[in-house]
Specification:
The structure holds two protein chains of two kinds.
Chain A lengths: L1 H31 L9 H24 L8 H19 L4 H6 L1 H26 L4 H29 L5
Helix pairs in contact in A: 2-3, 2-6, 3-5, 5-6
Chain B lengths: L1 H36 L13 H28 L5 H18 L1 H13 L1 H12 L4 H9 L1 H36 L5 H6 L1 H32 L9
Classes of the chains: A mainly alpha, B mainly alpha.
């Protein structure tokens, strides 16, 4: 019996070591699989800013053509607007902690600006409910969205210059 | 003649070299000034934004915008018994303008609400980095008064924020209702809405006036003695 245990001991010890190694490897792998952290290099910031501005351009183009779509292009404009918001959130994730701290007011204003601009979609629905023709309501929505996102993009560019985003 | 030519050439050369020297001197002065204007925080660090100056400018512009909008609203009632269509068109344009041009002030007031005291701490940071030593000293000396003004400003901005949205909704509703037929009968039927919009508009103006008054008193606290007040 003693012989049996002494023969079994080395493989048991080895098994324990293997198990520990596998657990450690799993832990390391799990750490590597954490949330994706985008780079905060100036180049990443420049690229991200350009993507936001491209999205703004697409949205502005969509506001000019939306009236030819069904429902005044409401769905299309909303989708394009959400794309701008998504890309802007992407830009924020490339900022350094220092930029986030010193630009906290500006970023809060840009966030608020998008929230305010988004109100045009509810305004459109309210206007139609109040008896305005959907074509006029849609034209109003397009005009406001076009100019408002232009104002927002100007602010964004100014803030990026001041916060040295992409420098 | 030859001597004259040589002399004139020499004079010309001297003049050229003098103008070049002057140009070099000017360049050196400009370079020195640019060097002085570089933020002390280093080339990569972002300098604090001149929040105080910008916000005051935005508030002044918003007051003018509100004034124009309320005038166009009043014109609808004034012109109702004549031909109200031009007054309506002007009103619709004014509503479009305020929908867009008010975004900056609304975004600022919303950000102030969202960030609370942290928003104003940034202003203090800005005042602490102003180049003018006297202003920096005054900001330090009047810190409690400035803090009180910040609080009042915060409250007034909150008032603007709370009333602005219902005011804009009233204007948009009026625009929608009168669009098809801005006749006397229709305008008369919307009298209540016109009065309500006007009332809310006055509240927005009062809020903006309070914001401006607080900013002016802050500016007075920070003005070095012996300097003229800005208009």
């Amino acid at each position: 019996m003693k012989f049996f245990y002494s023969k079994l001991a080395p493989p048991l010890g080895l098994g324990l070591w293997v198990t520990l190694a596998v657990l450690w490897a799993n832990a390391v792998y799990a750490q590597d699989q954490g949330p994706f952290v985008p780079p905060t290099t100036p180049m990443a910031q420049r690229n991200s800013l350009n993507l936001v501005l491209n999205r703004v351009g697409w949205l502005q183009n969509a506001t000019r053509t939306a009236s030819s779509f069904a429902g005044g292009g409401y769905g299309l404009l909303l989708q394009q607007f959400q794309a701008v918001r998504g890309q802007y959130n992407g830009l924020k994730s490339t900022l350094t902690p220092q930029q986030l701290a010193s630009g906290a007011n500006q970023l809060a204003e840009l966030d608020a600006g998008l929230d305010i601009i988004q109100e045009v979609f509810t305004d459109y629905q309210t206007a139609v409910a109040n008896g305005q023709s959907s074509s006029t309501a849609s034209a109003n929505m397009g005009k406001v969205l076009n100019r408002a996102i232009g104002v927002w993009a100007q602010e964004l560019k100014q803030d990026c210059r001041q916060l040295r985003i992409g420098w | 003649m030859c001597n004259m030519t040589i002399r004139s050439m020499m004079q010309g050369g001297l003049r050229n070299s003098c103008s070049r020297l002057r140009w070099l001197a000017q360049t050196a002065v400009v370079a020195a000034l640019i060097g002085c204007a570089t933020p002390e925080t280093g080339p990569k660090a972002p300098a604090p934004r001149a929040d105080f100056i910008e916000y005051r400018q935005i508030v002044v512009e918003s007051l003018a915008l509100m004034d124009a909008t309320l005038r166009s609203l009043a014109e609808i009632s004034v012109q109702a018994h004549r031909d109200p269509r031009p007054a309506y068109d002007a009103f619709a344009k004014a509503v479009h303008r305020i929908e867009v041009d008010s975004i900056k002030v609304r975004a600022r007031t919303q950000a102030m609400q969202a960030r609370g005291d942290a928003y104003f701490e940034h202003w203090e940071e800005y005042l602490a980095t102003v180049k003018n030593k006297q202003v920096r000293k005054l900001a330090e000396e009047h810190r409690p008064e400035l803090k009180r003004s910040f609080e009042q400003l915060h409250l007034a901005s909150q008032q603007v924020r709370e009333v602005f949205r219902p005011f804009l909704s009233d204007l948009q509703k009026l625009r929608a209702v009168l669009e098809a037929d801005p006749s006397l009968a229709h305008i008369d039927a919307q009298k209540g809405l016109i009065l309500a919009a006007n009332d809310k508009g006055r509240q927005v103006q009062q809020g903006l006036d309070r914001v401006l008054a607080e900013m002016n008193s802050m500016a007075a606290l920070l003005r070095p003695p012996g300097t003229a007040a800005r208009p």
